[in-house]
Amino acid sequence: MVPAPTSLGPACVGLRVVVRHLLPGETGPSGGPRMTDVLGVMEAWTSGPDAVTRIRTEGGVVEVPVAAIVSGKPVPPKPSVRLREPLLTMERRAAQDWPAEDSAPLGEWLLRAAAGYSRRANSALALGDPGVPMAEALRRVEEWYAERGLPALVLTVPTEPVADQVAAEGWVPASDDVLFQVSGVAAALRHLEDQSPEAADTAERVTIADTVDESWWVADHDPPWSSHVRAVLAGPAEVALARIEVDGTVVARGRAALNVGSDVRLGLSTLWTRPDLRGQGLGAGVLRALLEWAAEGGATSAYLQVEAGNTRAVALYERLGFLTHHSYRYLRSPRT
């Protein structure tokens, strides 16, 4: 990573900065020149005798003559409000967007099952207090999943004490880390337009339905197609199943769900483009169509989940403004 500059200059373009500068012709409280501070993202730094820097603040763009600058420096980016939302709230709402057919509480934990379709819908959301000692909680998890003929899995967040407590009982990793990433819907659309202008055209080829069928599913999955798959994918109250077809075959698709809580939130999942057609803007078109659908439904924020090892996808989503709220992983019982 290239280190951030320590003083103001052209290298700060694109960074958040604070700049103190003189206000020509104005007198300060002490009788000397009056000064003020500007905080925002530097958009330009020109050269020459009339050099200026342009800084975008929350109130608009401010132009500061370079000759009037007294001091300044880069500062850390403004923390995202979305990154401050409680972990349990984020995961609970995400569970509503990927609903298990069968669920049961265990204290603050949530046991979920859907006949084995997806780890997310067939694992215990192990966040908060299970209401009983850890060994007892995990024994109940094992019994609950055994009754359904499923392996016992728990979803844990490595930074939470519960994760260490589960591991101390001998439970072992069953997956790599998964990133839970968040962004604003408007920001994602803006970044997508800047980076994939062809998305506007391919989005016109997208069809959206509120139900899912086998052709949508088998595009990148092996059968069997089942009612359990349909129940999870089409379960939320407001869901969009988007597709692009070529000669009657689905070649790109994605899913979105709207969740109403403290805000209206978009959950994105199962984004896919057929490998031999990647790089043609099909995936970008599907994503744009889903973001626009969500915006029309009042969504202001969005989230998605991506495996940390999928560096190509992670880089794409970061370019679209998605930031990692937290990561999680699955642990399995040593007796599974």
TrEMBL record:
| Database matches in PROSITE patterns | GNAT (PS51186)
Q: Which Pfam families match?
A: Rv0428c_C, SH3_Rv0428c
Task: Report the residue ranges that make up the N-acetyltransferase domain in this protein.
Answer: 187-336
Which PANTHER family does this UniProt record tie to the protein?
L-2,4-DIAMINOBUTYRIC ACID ACETYLTRANSFERASE, N-ACETYLTRANSFERASE
Protein known as: Ribosomal protein S18 acetylase RimI-like enzyme
